[in-house]
């Protein structure tokens, strides 16, 4: 009986580890079916400027499982990355978002906005990635200048030259790049100036305790100064209070995302929101 084999086997029967292993196995088994039956749905969270105007949105994936309900990406993205399912999943997300953008463009609702899509390092480094993106952009007919890809510093664990080459190929088409979760990864300032980036996204971990945490204040000031001196835009994630927003504005940050403005919402809700922006009856001056 394995149970009695001694110390080394004990962890196999740790109920928490067992539960975690079961959860992982369940995810691994069920993600492919979820992709096939279109249960993976991008939600949209608006990005705002300092005047309270919506300047775009980030697509954030949700798994609407037919029995289990909404499963958050924090649960399934890591498994999808490890198993390689992220390639099919990421392609499905990008296709859905671009199709949605084409629809919003027809409604004239995307005026000057950019919609961003998260791209895992593993997906980015896939051989056919650049061609896949180009195909989707062409098939949906969207303006590539309206599309932004969010990548993280883990990208840089791989061949730097190839990373720059791939980013440049997409950027030459007009697609922009944001560096997500900036400050949490394997940052070396040397690579930053080599990467063809447009935006630094300050990780929400540095944002949430502003302005009380003096370390976070120093880090955020440094990131904003760094972005500006490199000619990059800077966006703060995880803005939950007006106090945090006002502090960031005072420090020179101009684009924000967070629960203060909106949680990620389904496409229909974001569309309604975009259309109300056009309606003079809903203008802010009342
Ligand atoms: P992320 O790209 O850094 O996205 C920001 C996360 O912060 C999102 O969590 C968002 O819902 C959450 N958030 C936004 N505003 C606030 C706020 O004011 N307070 C707090 N506490 N949280 C806020 P979410 O949607 O659970 O996504 C988690 C992560 O999963 C994302 O982090 C991203 O790394 C990954 N992810 C989501 N969708 C995709 C996708 O389509 N592809 C890939 N590869 N990764 C994705
Ligand atoms: Mg992101
Ligand atoms: Mg982030
Ligand atoms: Mg993240």
Short characterization:
The protein has 286 residues and is of the alpha/beta class.
Main attributes of the structure:
286 residues, alpha/beta, eight-stranded mixed beta barrel, 12 helices, 46% helix, globular, disordered N terminus, binds ligand C2E, binds magnesium ion, cyclic-guanylate-specific phosphodiesterase
Give your account of this protein's structure.
- β5 (147-151), α7 (160-171) and β6 (176-182) form a beta-alpha-beta unit.
- The protein is built from 12 helices and 9 strands.
- It is 46% helix and 18% strand.
- The protein has 286 residues and is α/β, with parallel strands linked by helices.
- The relative contact order is 0.11.
- The protein has helices at 7-10, 15-36, 73-83, 86-106, 121-125, 129-140, 160-171, 189-192, 204-207, 214-229, 242-250, 267-278, and strands at residues 40-49, 54-65, 69-71, 114-118, 147-151, 176-182, 199-202, 233-236, 255-256.
- It has an 8-stranded mixed β-barrel, surrounded by 4 helices.
- Residues 1-6 have low confidence and may be disordered.
- The chain is globular.
- It binds ligand C2E and magnesium ion (MG) (3 copies).
- Residues 24-278 form the EAL domain.
- This is cyclic-guanylate-specific phosphodiesterase.
